[in-house]
Amino acid sequence: MSKIFSTKLSEEIAERGGSIEDIALTFKVFAEKMPEIIEDFSRKPLATSIERGNLEPKVRELVLLGMLAVLQSGSGLVYHIQAAVKEGASEKEIMEVIYLAAYEQAKGTIGAIGESIEEGFRRASKMKKD
Fold this sequence. Notes:
Shape: elongated
Strand content: under 5%
Helix content: over 70%
Number of strands: 0
Oligomer: single chain
């Protein structure tokens, strides 16, 4: 999402301290046309997870941070970093989770493009022979 939205939006969210309402800024069209969708989207899955109680709140926030980092969701990171700290996560724990998520994403990307790179070199080699 950070690729779509400006740094100015991320700065605005950070200046305001970040809140659940920031999701509405990220999904501006939905917020304007059907605000109930934002309410539903932003609260129900998380509320359901909280109600199940399978994850400690700190663990849940750290998992969400890893996912949001890979998705490049600036506003989501701002909000969930605050929530993770509130639930007792340290800066080192947060940074470790973000690092691991980015590392795994990079491995997946490299693996996904590996065949294409190999095919590109195979075709380039064939061109030299022709």
